[in-house]
Amino acid sequence: MRKLLAVLLFLLYACRDSLTVKVEVCKGEPSVVLPCQYSQKLEEIVTVKWSSFDLDPNTVHQRQEADDLRGQNEIFKGRTSMAPLALDSGDFSLTLSEPQVSDSGVYICSLRHETEEIMVSDVQLIVTVIFPLWAIVLLALLAVLVLLAGGVLFNFRQYFMSVYRVEVDSGEESVLLPFKTAVCLPGKSKVTWRTHDSKVVHINSLNFQHQQHRQFKDRTEMKKPGKSRDFSLILKKPTDKDTGTYICTVCDYWSENISTKKQVLLNVKAGPDSLIISIDFGSGFSGYAFNVKPRQEGGETQIKRWRNGLGLDTPKTPTCILFDEHAEFMKFGYEAKTAFNNMRGEEAEKHYFFENVNMAVHGRVSKSKDLQINLLFWILSCPLLTCLSMI
Predict the structure, then answer these.
(1) Domain total for the chain?
(2) Statement to judge: residues 241 and 304 lie in one domain
(3) Which of the residues 34, 115, 288, 365 has the least number of beta carbons within 10 Å of its own beta carbon?
């Protein structure tokens, strides 16, 4: 039997994923909008800050109760604006007028409250220009020079890229998240690697383990930067769960002022023998779907069809389960409901019938300990085993 990597996707909570947004605009356009949406309600007065860490000072725009542009970089003077009710609506999008080619880069939208700063989104702005014929010829000549110097540029590419992309197959021994910088740094620096949702991946400290997220325990390693200014991180045994945006921040050890910051987009490709299962346990109805092959190999999502013997054929079944008098599983869904309804009074009293499995799991139905264990085990294993048996 093939080795299968089972990924259970419980759709009980909505998950928020912050990925880099790419915005392209041609030079000459009157303005461009850098999007940033924040769904949570702001209970306290905070500061919304747009910044670009390739600039010094890095402030592009800042808003609290009103615009605060005292620390704004000179190249953005009179060119940025936000909606008047941005803090109330949660729409922190920034409008940049008269975009220039030099404006291209990564812009960070973050929320600041006292000493805490949370990144909301990051936008990669690309400002292009339509070249005339003479410029195309000139670029062709420059391309020849670039090819001659390609080897040198390749060796130093990590120093200049603001966003670096890495792709690796699941099952590899390790993957390198590169970060080299030419920025002049203070004598002692604190280096912190985090995910886009602020999970601590690694800190260049001897006692960082208590801050490190459990997903990365004993799986990270970073060389001592020294004079090389190499803050690259080694992530061991990568899986598709590690796919996402990783942010490395280098700041002064004492003042914690940020010196430089870069992102790495990691994509860990799942193996060809992976099995993906999606299970939905609802209060009224439940169902599941699965895929045994990647989409690029022609794999299609298979949805379990449920029938009640009365001509119904639905993608979901009632969330009902029936156990016998010994707390052993008997039937689920339509079959459980039909079987229990056909039982007479004395026979029905000997059985355990749940119309809402979610309530039973959360302990709202008082039954025997063995019954609770069997109920939970069935919920976690039965749909997966059913899918495996259909392969």
Answers:
(1) 3
(2) no
(3) 115
